[in-house]
Design brief:
Layout: E1 4-8, H1 16-29, E2 34-38, H2 46-49, H3 60-65, E3 74-76, E4 83-86, H4 98-108, E5 114-118, H5 125-131, E6 136-141, H6 145-160, E7 166-173, H7 175-181, H8 187-194, E8 198-203, H9 206-212, H10 226-235
Parallel strand pairs: 1-5, 1-6, 2-4, 2-5, 6-7, 7-8
Antiparallel strand pairs: 3-4
Length: 245
């Protein structure tokens, strides 16, 4: 089963980590068992967003170095049954190599329905490592030129790494602001510039922004999660239309 998905962006600030968590919660709501892996070494944040910061004793580097078992480096979300996290190393110098990270993911992939990998922004060594075991990729951008150009660079790098199955997520979309700024004529122009097929258009949501700073508690009840429900369905092979706000 092609169940390992890397979530990437060309620049910081697109809301990529929020997409990772919201998608994971949506998949869990559909009965899936999901492992989130934070690959942003030295800048990890998913442990805070999932409210497990105080529980973290071991991270991915500890697991591969033999300081703990793989299972001991996986932490269960207190608010979302069947959602688990493997934290990134706290120190950037402990970043894993692509081959080692691929072996780590391969060793646990059969234990989960989906593995969602949160890649660091950009196309540096951390991105290469995060992409190594991926079956498919979600490229997260905002509807503004520098973000879209960064997403296009990510697309090309993914192709060079052999990750051909790619889809675009336009995040934090505000239709009124989009029309006011007039960076693009319409959404089709954004998609054309990104050169990637759109799979989700995520509206800007204060609800999600606030919830993410409170450990994702209550996220499953957010109305803004509807778009992620559709995204989860589409990733799971269901034919459902895009939700356009």
């Amino acid at each position: 089963m092609d169940n390992v998905i890397v979530v990437a962006s060309g620049k910081g600030g697109t809301g990529k980590s929020t997409v990772c968590i919201c998608l994971s919660v949506a998949l869990v709501k559909k009965g899936k068992k999901v492992l989130l892996i934070d690959c942003d070494c030295g800048m990890r944040g998913l442990d805070i967003m999932l409210d497990v910061e105080q529980d973290i004793l071991f991270d991915a580097s500890d697991a591969v170095c033999g300081n703990c078992s793989f299972g001991e480096a996986i932490y269960k979300s207190p608010h979302n049954p069947n959602l688990y996290l493997m934290a990134a190393p706290f120190d950037a110098e402990n970043e894993l190599s692509p081959s080692v990270f691929r072996q780590l993911v391969d060793s646990v992939r059969n234990n989960f329905d989906y593995i969602i990998i949160d890649s660091p922004a950009g196309i540096g060594s951390g991105f290469v490592t995060a992409s190594a075991p991926a079956d498919k990729a979600l490229i997260v951008t905002n509807a503004e030129p520098t973000s879209v150009r960064g997403g296009l660079k990510v697309r090309r790098k993914l192709e060079a790494l052999g990750v051909e199955n790619q889809r675009l997520v336009i995040n934090r979309f505000d239709r009124k602001m989009f029309r006011k700024l007039r960076f693009y004529e319409d959404l089709d122009a954004v998609i054309d510039a990104a050169q990637t097929q759109l799979i989700a258009l995520v509206p800007f949501s204060y609800d999600i922004s606030v919830i993410m700073q409170r450990g994702a508690a209550g996220l499953e009840d957010s109305a803004a999660l509807q778009v992620f429900d559709r995204l989860a369905d589409r990733l799971d092979g269901r034919r459902v239309p895009l939700l356009i706000h």
